[in-house]
Amino acid sequence: MLRLERLPSLPFGWLIAALGVGMLAALPPDYGLLILGGTALFVLSLIDLRVAVTATLILAPMKALIETESALRLPLDIGQIAFAFTVGLWLLKQIAESRRVVLPRLSVLLPLAAFIFAAALSLLTADSVSATLNELIKWLQMVIMALITASLCGRHGIGWLLGALLVAACVQAIIGVYQFVGGSGAPHLWILDYRYFRAFGSFGQPNPFGAFMGMTLPLALGAAFGAFSMVWQPHGTARRMWLMLAGALGAAAALIGIGLAVSWSRGAWLGFGAALGVLILLAPRQRGLGVVMAVGCAGVLLLATISGSLPSALLARFSDFAQDLTGFQDVRGVPISDANYAVVERLAHWQAALSMADESPLFGVGFGGYEAAYGRHALVNWQLALGHAHNYYLNVLAETGLVGLLAYMGMWFALIRLSLRTLHLPNAFWRGAGLGLLAVWAHIAVHSLFDKLYVNNLFLHFGAMLGLIGTLVAATRSVTRKA
User: Cα angle vertex 448, ends 471, 174, to 5°?
Assistant: First the structure.
């Protein structure tokens, strides 16, 4: 029964709500949807911070789409706004609950911190200090995202973060499939005899979209394998639950795989080929069986290639692969044609990167400063900077010098070494997630030969994956101590 003193406040509350709805209706649709969605996100995030993290991972790749297609002008891109909100809410919740900020101990962040320190040394020789600071901030955001996700995984397990990463990828895959079948309309993206369009999701370009699909597909496959492996361990209701989860993860993997295919990105395909090899090799707990399976699959692929069983369009897409990897040369005098344009453009930017490294071999021209320094090193026919060298290893060498490149390679060596420990986890689902992340690292390592992947806020997803692997590595230490 309502108390009498509260009755007069009810009509006033309804009046405020009515005024709010009226104001939303009077606003342009973009602003109205933003306010309505932001309010719902704020309320749900107050209840559970995982909502904010999930929303950040979904919204982060929308940066290019909103900047180019929406009339809405934001002070920061939508992914950065969502990330800033998530960080602020996480800090407030930490202080409210513990009266201090409690950071999880993640050994995987030590090699990352070493690389950030090495990259920061390039400030000494940077062409553009602002560009270097901006790039360093991106890598620090990876660290923060890893800490936030690891702290939440410590409370709630890893399942929600796996789901958040895969839902974000599935949203992009759906957009990509729509574009592939005609929703793009971009004439320069015609493929397959002008019947379909290369998909680019909300990224504006097919290659970073393909990178996102390639980064998340191995994780989906590894997690699906882990969930399916759990079917044979428990019984009853738990067994049915794991079977349903394996089916859901398999469906997500299928959708993301279609997104990867319609990106028509050769670099992403090659990266996934490396990731698939890691999945096959390391999936069995018996290493010998994994080697046999990997060799068998490689043999089948080789026979299919020799016999011409593979689709001709797919083979044509890889026709200049050998030239990209082994045909590096001085391209200043090479005649340019439609057939060799993409290859020569890539090699020209590689050559510019090597010229930058020669100018400042120790610390480079400044982390993130490739574009700022490009004018001094550009080849005559290639004056337009593409923002990066289209080979991240050369990009790091050019921007951070030998010091930065060695730290970057050391970071990956340490990360892979730590991730391999998760293959000894007794929990098959956790092991599957660790296996998937090892395959993700393989994809990034190979795809980085052709592109820079830390673009369009994808570094936030990489940070979340670091939080996930950090949680699993911590779990291996716990299992070891109990043993």
Answer: 75
